[in-house]
Amino acid sequence: MTLLTITMQTPSPSPVGVPGAGIFSSPVLLSLLIWVPVIVAVAIASMPNPRGRYDVLMKQIAFFTNLGLVFVLFIAYNQFENFLPTMQYEEKLPWLPAIGVTYHLGVDGPGLVMLILSGLIGVASVLASLGVRERVRTYFCLLLLAQASVNGAIVARDMFVLILFWGAAAIPLALLILGWGGGPAVRRAAAAWRLLGYWGLGTGVLAVGVLALYAVTGGRSFDMDTLLKAGLSPRIQIAVSLVMIVAAAMRLPLFPFHGWLRDVLAEAPPGVVVVVAGAASRLGAFLLLRTVIAAEPAAGHLLSPVLAALAALTVGYAGLAALRTADIRHAGAYLAMVPGGITVLGLAAISPLGIAGSVLSLFTGGLAAALVAGVCATLSERAQSRSLAVLSGLAPRMPNLGWLLMIAALALLGVPILASFAAEVMTFFGAFKNQPIGAFAVAAGLAVSAIALAVLLRRVLFGAPNPDAPGVSDASLGETWYLGLLAGGLLWVGLFPGGPKIPGTEIPLFDPGLINQMAAGLSDMASPYAAPAPGPSQ
Amino acid sequence: MAMFGTVVTLLLTLLVAWGLTRRSTPFVATYQYINLSVGFNGPTNFQTFAIELVLHVDHLTVAALAVIEICMIAAIGWNQVMGRAEPGAARFHAVITALLFACSGILVSWDLAELFGFWAIAGAMTYLLLAHRWGVDEAATRARVALALPFLTDLCLLCGIAWLYARYGTQNLNTLLPILHTNPGWTVRSLVVASILLFIGVGGRLALWPLTSWITQTAVTAPPAASAIAQSAWSVVAIVVLYRLMPILAASNQQTIRAFISATLVAAIAAPLLGLIGNEPRRAIALAGSGAVAIAATVVLNGLQVTYSTFAVAGVAAALAIAPARAAAVLAAASIASAMRTDNLAEMGDAWRRMRATSGALVGSAVVMGLAAAGALAFGVPTRSYLGFALGDAVLLIAIGGLRIFLTASFGPLRRRRAFEPDRVRETPGALGWPYWLVAAGAALLIASGITGWLNFLDGQKHPSPSAGAILLWVVVPIVGFGACTLAYVFNKEGALAASATGGLWIGRIISAALGVIDRFLIGPTTGIAARFGDWIPAGDGAIGRFTTTSGRIALAASRAPAVPLVIVLAVVLALVFALVAPGVAR
To answer: Most buried by CB count within 10 Å: which residue of A84, B221, B317, B551?
Structure first.
């Protein structure tokens, strides 16, 4: 048996003056984020739990696992060097050398943004799941496995490994919906199968694209540095990019590949809703960024109108469908599509600012989508009804959930103070140069979404209470915390996108600023799209 | 606390104003909000994206801010007496404070992205104010338009700013304005598009007709203090922003400016004209105020055509005078409506005897609104031009509309109705003074708007004085309007009210019919298609699922079938297929 040696990148030297510098340095940091949840899941599964005696302990284990990972992430985030364009915290381990597969992990600016998002979503999903009473052990085991696969898909630098993690997320999530969803068994089964079908098909499509890349690059390696920097002809770039767009559209989702979203977000328990809407679905846009925009600039230029059209259709359809639906969870599901459309508009902008906006939008869109879908799910559970005909005048009786729904609405619309404002400003500013029609169309779709939100708020929160409605209760502590965490994340980055500074100085206080950290590698990604110097004025 | 905060803010504003008198340049402070390097190649403008919090405080800023604060103080004070029954007092005052913060931010912003940020916050707070009555169905329904319509126009503003950034790579006015015609690649077309988008964005918040529904729909259902604040604050904020964006609008072409002037002119005439139809006093006040602000906007824009800044700042001064008068009118009308338990002018009357102070505030505000534009128009709109004629009509209509409410509510019998006793109608002590203070402030600003020194103070430039004849001429126009209204209502009040009620009924029917047509032929089918798509996709998934299940069953059955006959059948079928499709078979 060949001795496997871990090829370690020397841990990056800590930047001078950063609080927490030198506290933590590990060559297997990214592996921790993947395998610790798996190990804990296995440990939870192995623990005896006669008659649910240790349910609370299992919840605590899951919570503190996620909290510990967020702590590790926080330190890694602080030590991340935003001036380096290369991957950081790299790990490389030969795995299947015969076909060129390596266990290669690494993260750059956009990847770090996704990891932070995944960490926050992980904590929020556990908090949202504190109300689970049945088969707690199995539930949290599957939840941790889902989180691990999302983290793995984010940090994978080998396309084969990416496919594995990409597809692996579907199984635990489908089982969670099937076993712990809110509706009748028939609807839960339909939602679970739909998720498996779409995500499975998307994984298959991704595999086709990856294999095509593998074949045209000589079939030597699945490493992203090989496949995505191969300098392919425009025709091959377009073909591969189209495949990747389909795979990404099935995950994000984009119209018309969104068929799974409504049922999944409507039937899943709130913890799963948060994971799906907040982190797992963002992988679609992340894939587009890595494999199309960053790797295939010729295809990026040619296919940008297609991406803009998909973005506009998605946002417009989401608003119209949310306007028409009579089910609050369906409304939340449709509105959760809006941030994805904005993110794709930023990618379609094929300008440095648009790409930067879309990277920030990955974070803000994930939080906003999770917030709106989560609050609709929690509200329907607390009000014991999903029908908009029954729900009315809830704001005075459910003040916490009422305010959180309003914050979710404001986050979707990109109101300032919330982080989505900065993301949408950057996206629109970047998009108007190259995709003005797409930008206008998305803005129009956003206007329709605003109308849908106004109707939703008026129906659910304002107006006279319905005397025939069942009794309602406000959010529990756990529910308030998980929704508050999502809202707090949006608020924090919205107020301090560059991080708080010690007054009078440029020294970061304890947060170097998401905007700053995400810049690592961004300029390289965007350099093929930098506009040439304009000619003489007319 | 909200009152305390607003008063403190006013004192600080006055302190800053005093500081400005001791220097010749504005106060400027800059803070970094976002500074992101997005590229290392391409034009330098686009290599870095920055949003800076540029706080630029000049004379115009402090004047506008002081007017807004005065309006808010009066509205809060009035609400503390008259709004005791309103739900959520803490929420109400918190939102007002946040709105004041946002309006201050807009007025001091010199970075367009920063401006839009505060603009959007102010928009959100305005919606929360106008939708304040959470338990009332009608309030919630009507407040929808207060979110959706201004959001549309706010999006246009954002698109305009984004369009400018896409062409110039900067949104800081200090760096943008000097390069409007010198930045490589600039075109007239791009400036025209940006101007149109910016104008729509600002016009929505100015509530220029036909974008008035967000204030007229909520005029009755929103708390009166909220409605007063929304109308007065936004008219000041939006006119100042229009004035600041003037160089960008001026950089486009003459046809565009003329189109804008035509639009504001139509708004100046249509809004008060519609206010004459229908008997809802608060809606009529909102429309009259909208018309007055439209005149101010016309003067600002006309300044671009004639002499750059003289008449523009006169329009701003007129808007500063209109704002407190508008707020006073809303509060006074609300007091009368609340005392008389009706929002129908036909059921009001005798307020001059029973509520003299409030009625006096109403006539004062009508006079101020009617005369507010006189000074601005006197600064150089020729009376013998189409523009002068049209603006004269607008002033006439505003004067008639404003006084109509006073005359109808103040004179004539107040009839007994079911559960209403006229003898119980009386003033509410404690709420009397606030509309009066607003009228006094409006009157002071009205007089100042005709004084050259005030205009010189506002924009720091020297302006010529208008002739006394011009001022007199423009003052006569609203006086004629007042006289005409008085004659009409003195001789036949019932007939005039009946005519406006009938007109209002027809307008309502036409609007309902139009909305019905839009809903039937546009909104309904569009949302229906979206809903059907939502059903088709799962149905399609189901069909795919059934297909795969069926093919699986066929495969399973085939695996159980005897092999030899199956192979023969397959061979025959394939041979037939190939025979049919292969070329040459047809010969």
So the answer is: B317
Q: Is A455 at the interface with chain B, CB within 8 A?
A: yes
The dihedral of CA B367, B372, B378, B380: what is its sign?
negative
Full DSSP string of B14-44: HHHHHHHHT-SS-EEEEEEEEEEE--SSS-G
Question: Which residues sit opposite A102 in a β-bridge?
Answer: A94
What pLDDT digit, counting tens, does each position of B427-454 carry? 777 666 788 889 999 999 988 888 888 8
CA–CA distance, A403 with A101 (Å, rounded to integer): 49
Is there a contact between B472 and B360 (Cβ–Cβ < 8 Å)?
no
Q: Per the structure block, which two tokens stand in for B541? A: 């998934």
Question: What residues of chain A, 185 to 214, have a C-beta less than 8 Å from chain B?
Answer: 190, 193-194, 197
* C-alpha distance from A419 to closest chain B C-alpha (Å): 11
Q: Which of B328, B326, B323, B284 lies closest to B78 in space, CA to CA? A: B328
A501/B contact by beta carbon, under 8 A: no
Question: What is the spatial distance between Cα B230 and Cα B135, in angstroms, rounded to a whole number?
Answer: 21
Query: Which amino acid would we find at residue B444?
Result: A
Residues of A in contact with B537 (CB under 8 A): 256, 258-259
Q: Record the pTM.
A: 0.81
Distance in angstroms between the alpha carbons of the first and the last residue of chain A: 71
Nearest to B268 by CA among B387, B403, B437: B387
Mean residue pLDDT of chain B comes to: 84
- Indicate the range of A149-163, A282-296, B474-488 predicted with least confidence: B474-488
SS3 label, residue B466 = coil
Q: pLDDT value at position A23?
A: 53
Judged by DSSP in three states, A469 sits in coil
Residues B1 and B78: their CA atoms lie apart, in Å, by 15
Is any Cβ of chain A less than 8 angstroms from the Cβ of B46? yes
- Spatial CB neighbours of B273, under 8 Å, sequence gap ≥ 6: B397
pLDDT band at A420; cut points 50, 70, 90 = very high
Q: What's the rounded mean pLDDT across residues B355-377?
A: 85
| Three-class secondary structure of residue A291 per DSSP | helix
Phi, psi of A302 (to 5 degrees): -75, -35
Rounded Cα–Cα distance for residues A341 and A445 (Å): 10
Q: B186 and A537 in contact by Cβ < 8 A?
A: yes
How crowded is the C-beta side of B43, counted as CA atoms within 13 Å?
A: 19
Tens of pLDDT along A189-231? 889 988 998 999 999 999 999 999 999 888 888 998 888 887 8
Alpha-carbon span B43 to A533, nearest angstrom = 5
Residue pairs spanning A and B at CB distance below 8 A: 200
Please report how the helices B452-459 and B310-340 are oriented relative to each other, as an axis angle in degrees rounded to 10.
100
In this prediction, residue A232 has a pLDDT band, given cuts at 50, 70 and 90, of confident
Q: Whats the size of chain A, residue-wise?
A: 538
Residues 108-137 of B with CB under 8 A from A: 113, 116-118, 120-121, 124, 131, 134-137
B143-160 pLDDT, tens digit each: 778 888 888 899 899 889
> Is the per-residue pLDDT at A476 higher than 90?
no
> Are A211 and A245 a contacting pair, CB within 8 Å?
no
Give this complex's ipTM: 0.76
Q: Compute the Cα dihedral for B369, B370, B375, B379 and give only its sign.
A: positive
CA neighbours closer than 13 Å in the CB half-sphere of residue B163 = 25
Q: Inform me whether the pLDDT recorded for B43 exceeds 90.
A: no
CA dist., res. A362 & res. A343, Å (int): 6
Chain A residue whose CA is closest to B171: A429
How far apart are the CA of A254 and the nearest CA of chain B, in angstroms?
A: 13
Residue A537 is predicted with a pLDDT of 44
A84 contacts A12 by C-beta, under 8 angstroms = yes
d(CA A358, CA A424): 8
